[in-house]
Design goal:
single chain; 346 residues; six-stranded antiparallel beta sheet; globular
């Protein structure tokens, strides 16, 4: 991965992370992706679902390849405006109450204004609540305390906040001097930035890809149907670029690219996995092969709808669906492996 492309990917990642985009509220993130691709000279289109589809060109249109990443994230939605002016929310995707307590959130009105607040335990002061440590954290025991002078439901409604408004958790992005990338929602804005960086390199290097190659930025992956419903004619394979899991029993670290052999939807295409492993070995790419028992991807959704080969890789991400951490090396290794596979002639 060239330094200029690496820097572009990091800058793009930081820009994407600044855009709140839980599943169902992804318009601004999709518009940003379209703006990036249009600026490179491509002609992206927005799908009916709200995702972004873009052709990078390529020779063989009868054996097309789709590179898929998702720009939707976890989040919340207002389910009740309480009489004291506090907000109860439900989760969108796998948002965990145990690791969002005390986080800053933004609540968006339907005219796209937002108000900040904090997700707090009901009665959160340890000097007042004698049951503080015994209380199980759930979205029944947590509430949003708005940073506004509100003390009733009517006060909140006067701001334009209603049931069904989106509540977005601040990502708290930080890149350390030694290359660690820390933020919520690296799943999957990190790999989305990698795809955009690849699109930039294809243009700048005037690459002619062996297969007609598409980018698909999906917007409902976190709730299970991101890549279902959209597949250009001639595509025979989906290459998912998501997050690689880091944790007990797994070999991957944040500095590696993870090759997924199987997840909760079953095994990935065996020949494709073998090809990825060989490419990683041949090109000196730091990799690991792992199985993710509690994981599903856009590939999982696509193969239930379309007759496709499917493979999945991603940079190692620690503390997935929490305050996540990866590394620039993991980003580089993921880019290099995806590029090598995309340029592979069959």
């Amino acid at each position: 991965m060239q330094d200029t492309i690496c820097n572009f990917a990091l800058d793009t990642l930081c820009s994407l992370l600044k855009i709140d985009s839980p599943s169902g509220f992804t318009g601004a993130a999709a518009d940003y992706v379209i703006q990036c691709l249009t600026g490179m000279g491509y002609a992206p289109v927005k799908t009916l679902k709200g995702g972004v589809l873009c052709c990078l060109g390529g020779k063989d249109a009868s054996n097309g390849l789709i590179l898929s990443a998702h720009i939707d994230t976890l989040g919340g939605m207002v389910t009740q405006i309480k009489g004291n002016g506090r907000l109860k929310i439900c989760k969108i995707g796998g948002l965990e109450p145990n690791n969002v307590e005390t986080e800053t959130v933004r609540v968006y009105t339907r005219d796209n204004r937002f108000y900040e607040g904090t997700l707090q335990l009901c009665n959160p002061s340890v000097h007042v609540n004698t049951n503080y440590t015994q209380t199980a954290r759930s979205f029944d025991t947590l509430e949003i305390v708005l940073d506004e002078d509100v003390s009733s439901a009517d006060d909140v409604k006067a701001l334009g906040i209603e049931v069904g408004c989106f509540a977005c958790v601040d990502p708290r992005t930080k890149i350390t001097e030694n290359g660690y990338i820390k933020s919520r929602f690296l799943d999957n804005k990190l790999s989305s930035a990698i795809l955009l960086a690849f699109a930039k390199s294809v243009k700048e290097e005037n690459l002619v890809l062996p297969r007609q190659t598409w980018l698909h930025f999906t917007v409902y992956e976190e709730i299970g149907h991101g890549a279902a419903g959209t597949c250009p004619a001639g595509v025979t394979e989906i290459f998912g670029v998501d997050m690689g899991c880091v944790g007990d029993g797994l070999a991957c670290t944040e500095k590696m690219v993870s090759i997924c052999a199987a997840d909760s939807s079953g095994p990935y295409n065996y020949d494709g996995v073998c090809a990825l492993v060989q490419l990683a070995k041949d090109n000196g790419i730091g990799y690991a092969v792992d199985i993710y028992p509690h994981y599903g991807s856009d590939c999982s959704a696509a193969i239930r709808t379309f007759d496709l080969k499917h493979i999945l890789i991603g940079p190692g991400v620690f503390a997935s669906h929490g305050y996540e951490r990866s590394h620039i090396d993991g980003m580089k290794n993921t880019y290099d492996l995806m590029r090598a596979y995309t340029l592979l002639s069959e």
